[in-house]
Amino acid sequence: MSRHKLKKFAAAVNAPNILFEPRDRKGNWKQSFFKNTNPLVVELGCGRGEYTLALARMFPEKNFIGVDLKVDRLWAGACIAREQHITNMVFIRINIYELLNFFMPNEIDEIWITFPDPFSKGSKLKKRLTSTTYIQLYRSVLAEGGFIHFKTDHTSLYQFTKKVCLQENMKILQDIDDLYNTEIEEIVLTIQTAFEKKHLQMNDTIKYLKMQF
Ligand SMILES: C[S@@+](CC[C@H](N)C(=O)[O-])C[C@H]1O[C@@H](n2cnc3c(N)ncnc32)[C@H](O)[C@@H]1O
Predict the structure, then answer these.
(1) Residue nearest to atom 23 of ligand 1 (CA)
(2) Nearest-angstrom CA–CA distance, 152 and 157
(3) Residues catalogued as catalytic
(4) Which of 65, 137, 154, 183 has the fewest CB neighbours in a 10 Å radius?
(5) What's the pLDDT tens digit per position in 32-61?
(6) Structural domains of the chain in order of their starting residue, each with its CATH number
């Protein structure tokens, strides 16, 4: 790791709004960490947390957690949250594969997955955040009636996700294959991360799915 990265890592370890592997919070996010009973919304693979930050600003009556493995990305989001005094959110550094170590069954009210890595090569398909293994993890932690929101520019990942969704007997409540050529009612769908902006500049179409178990 470069000296610059090491410095960032050390700063992130001490940041109050980034938690590393917070196993002790499992089952205690609302009451003990956020000190309320507001709904808990989790963004998986949040990167620099642009979506989480925007949602947290829009919905002060909800709690938000941005999840990623990459500390430098979390650090960027955590600095913005601190500068803008956004207190209804926190970042956690975990591997999503280990989600059950950090959340109790039914603890999460809503999940967002925005522009996940497509992991297109055969051997990597199982690493997709909407592969069967991951969807089954989400089933465990998502409260009854909770939603999974999914946004991507990647056509084959979008089709793959719909297939897994059907295999897992999930409902697809909304299926949009070209978001910006569709009348969008929900303002939350117009939040754009740097990844999304990059794809829009390349004239890629953005796809959105809203799913429920
Ligand atoms: C392409 S980026 C998108 C980031 C963000 N959602 C956005 O739109 O800007 C995907 C992110 O998912 C994270 N990620 C992928 N697999 C993960 C895993 N198993 N656990 C934690 N983070 C993961 C990566 O570290 C990366 O930051």
Answers:
(1) 45
(2) 8
(3) 117
(4) 183
(5) 999 999 999 999 999 999 999 999 999 999
(6) 32-212 (3.40.50.150)
